[in-house]
Amino acid sequence: MIGGGPAGLSCALSYVAAGGDPRAIVVYERARYPREKPCAGGLGGRGEAILFALGAMPDVPAVPVSAASLQGRFGFRRVEPARNLPGGTIGRVVRREAFDGALAECARRRGIRIEEGCSLLALEEGAEHIHATFTDHTGLEKSLEFRTVVGADGVGSTVRKSLGLGRGLPYAQVVECDTETTPYDRPRDELHFDVEDRRYHGYAWDFPTLVAGAPAVCRGVYVVRWDGCDEVGVRDPGPLLEERLLRLGARPLSKKRKRFAERGWLPGTTISSARRLLIGEAAGIDPVTGEGIAQALESGFDAGKFLAERQSPARWSMHFAHSRLGRDLRLRTGGLAPFFGRSRDAVEALLLADPTLLDAATRHFAGLPLERAATAAALLRGAAAAAEYKLRRR
Ligand SMILES: Cc1cc2nc3c(=O)[nH]c(=O)nc-3n(C[C@H](O)[C@H](O)[C@H](O)COP(=O)(O)OP(=O)(O)OC[C@H]3O[C@@H](n4cnc5c(N)ncnc54)[C@H](O)[C@@H]3O)c2cc1C
What is the pLDDT of residues 315-369, one digit of tens each? Predict the structure, then answer.
């Protein structure tokens, strides 16, 4: 396993849970826990369910959330799909340093070896083995041979590059910072998205969080590009975030801005070979929202079982494309252009006028059953509105 984030760790845990021998796998992680990972930490019920199934939910401080809200050009809407359910939450906001460190600890307790400070440099696939070059925690270069290598090494994946795959589109630039709370913040049980600004393809967010145990707000801007998108938009989220902080009167807790990229899933990409397979953000995540923790956990969970069943890594690409997650990501990638492209006004107006779609998206994040007929009807209405809007603009 290359990479000890949610994808690599859930893959290792799932492999062992499915009867695989923990001594047969090693997780190589470039950093040391608690390692920093720029992330707003929004973990929905769908991701939580995987961790519960693995018996590996990290016991770390978190802010429980029960609602999502959308501010658009044409208004505002808040949905609370779990309102009448026991617990009433749709997920939680975690701090990734603590969360990933605790997940790694859990994997260690199951007998999984994690080599920290070990960075993969290169891979060479042979008929019998795959040859890997690393630098270890002392900085020394070493060579090892494996039967299979799982690329769970995130957005800059070395394993992905070794498969000849480029950076790829959709691709997003993201910047975030933690701020003090303000009197004008949304309630602390809410994940807030702001899609009002038309200067870029993407959105801004405000998520409740805890910094050193004290209430704070993680605010950020997500700017995405996809194949065929208009190039008129602003590409750099940095100035957009500074402007927004000023407008909200939100005081950052530090001068540091956490910048990172995110890779969306591109259907049709071959993400495995005879001895290599990609999971998590190395493969691609949801390009519309940039949600990636649940996707990393789900692909890791699936891949762990897949490997414990001794299936050939070459089949992973097809397996993933037809999995529940693969189908979901395909749908989402298809939603990028309608949502952030030329028909943005129409889709946004529909989302704000009719709560069904926002409710469905939030239910999906929360892992709650979808009201299928109503969602399908709302999707059809959305597609019709987008098509009509495009025609009128011609
Ligand atoms: C600013 C920002 C905000 C976000 N907010 C959210 C959110 O609120 N909710 C959500 O669901 N998602 C969010 N995401 C996305 C989410 O953080 C990622 O999709 C998720 O972490 C992917 O998990 P992963 O395990 O695939 O990769 P990662 O978490 O990136 O883990 C990859 C690991 O591989 C290691 N590694 C990399 N290269 C090597 C190498 N050569 N050798 C050894 N190890 C290596 C890295 O050190 C890292 O630990 C956000 C992303 C960003 C950038």
Answer: 999 999 999 999 999 999 999 998 999 889 988 998 899 889 899 999 999 999 9
pLDDT digits (tens, 9 = 90+) for 215-233: 999 999 999 999 988 876 7
Ligand 1 contact via 11 beta carbon (within 6 Å): no
Does the Cβ of 296 fall within 6 Å of ligand 1?
Answer: yes
CATH (residue range 6-60+95-168+264-331): 3.50.50.60
**Tokens of residue 121, six digits:** 């440099």
Residues forming a β-bridge with 177:
219
92 lines ligand 1 (CB under 6 A): no
> 319 C-alpha vs ligand 1 centroid, how far in Å?
23
CA distance 73 to 380: 22
Q: How far apart are CA 177 and CA 194, in angstroms?
A: 16
| pLDDT surpassing 90 at residue 65 | yes
Euclidean distance between the first and the last CA atom of the chain, given in angstroms as a whole number: 50
Residue 235 amino acid letter: R
pLDDT digits (tens, 9 = 90+) for 116-170: 999 999 999 998 999 999 999 899 999 999 999 999 999 999 999 999 998 888 9
Three state DSSP letters for 278-344: ECHHHCCECCCCCCCHHHHHHHHHHHHHHHHCCCCHHHHHHHHHHCHHHHHHHHHHHHHHHHHCCCH
Could you give the 3-state DSSP secondary structure of residue 138?
A: coil
* 53 membership: H or E segment, kind and range: helix 45-53
Question: What's the 155 CA to ligand 1 centre distance in angstroms?
Answer: 7
- Give the β-pairing of 149-151 and 276-278: parallel
Q: Which residues contact 236 (CB under 8 A, 6 or more apart)?
A: 173, 223
Residue 338 Cβ < 6 Å to ligand 1 = no
Pocket test for ligand 1, best of 13, 39, 206 (most atoms within 8 A of CB): 39
